[in-house]
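haha ok so turns out i had the wrong file open the whole time. this is the CORRECT one, sorry everyone. sequence first:
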Amino acid sequence: MIAISSKYEHLLIYIHEENVFVWSKNSHSAYIFEGVFGALFFLIEEHGYCVSPDKYLKLLGLKQNSITLAFIKQINKLIYKKESCKSPIKEEVYLVNTSSIRQLHFQSEGLVCALYNTFFHLYCDKDLNTSIYPIFNYLKTEKNNIKNIPYFFSIKLENKVYNLYVNDEKKESVTKEENILCVLMDLIRVTLYVNNDYLVAFHAASLVHKNRAYIFPGISGSGKSTLSTFLMYNGFKLCSDEATIIDRTYNIKSIPLPITIKEGSWNIVKDFVKNFNFLPTYKRLDGQNIKFVIPTTAVHKKSTFSDIIIIFPKYKDKSPIKLRKLTVVEALKTLKETQYQLEDPYSFTVVKQFLTFLFSTRVYMLTYSNLSEAMSALNELNNNE
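then structure:
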């Protein structure tokens, strides 16, 4: 075992025959490079990022096709956090066997979480353990034989800044600890839906009751998170609080992360969420105070629902309960206000499939001021069908 250190990375390297095993102490990630020359690691570490690939090959006495430029880029990225290499040689000569580079993530510390049918590994510096891990404990899996975990989220304090990484690539930075969790939630949510095959993603909460799925798109202040929390505490199962993903078979891909409750709703939610006042307070980047409610019941596996209903919640103080069916045109206009994203908005096939979904789905506007009355309206909707 040999150690290599730079100001960016601390690596432990074990070379066996033509296989190189690398352990990153910074990110707690393992890398396997198959069928390569271990000496190349030490040449790069000694000469640095400025040495071009053709010089590496001459130093080792290798032929041009013996090693890939992709391998050299990967090592440079590991040691120096830089990918590019100065080379007068055409890159396609070296891009022969990029499949020989594999990256593996596994649990050394932190949590391995199961979210729907996707696993991810969460790691943070020790001083953040008590504030980050408890929020995700309900997703923790005890399985020890998980292979090829696709996503590795890590939080590290570097030069007085908290940097958030996804698979060793820095994605976000925050200066205050109280902002970390909000940014991390958004990062997990976006990573999971962007990297999955989907038809449309709504800015919406979604829940399931008696094999029927309800999607609640809403702008900020519409009451979707408060209503979702109330429904969850009254027999509904949470799919998602912020982003609802519909796949090409018209099923919901569940992302049951903790529900975000803004300060304006705390006095309502504390009446039905036990010990709500004792939950820790966090801040969003816009300065708003929030609390997270951990799901009591949630959809954690793929399900086929008998029906999907879209309901736009509209909280209005002292307003009588009103449930009004919308036309497709009204639904599209309202969806534009609440925001949605098609997988490919320029694809005729995608747009056609989305419109087919919308034409076959019942859509309503729910105006309410009382949560119990809102739930009664939903139950009455079911009873009348």
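The two ends are 68 Å apart (CA to CA).
again sry for the mixup
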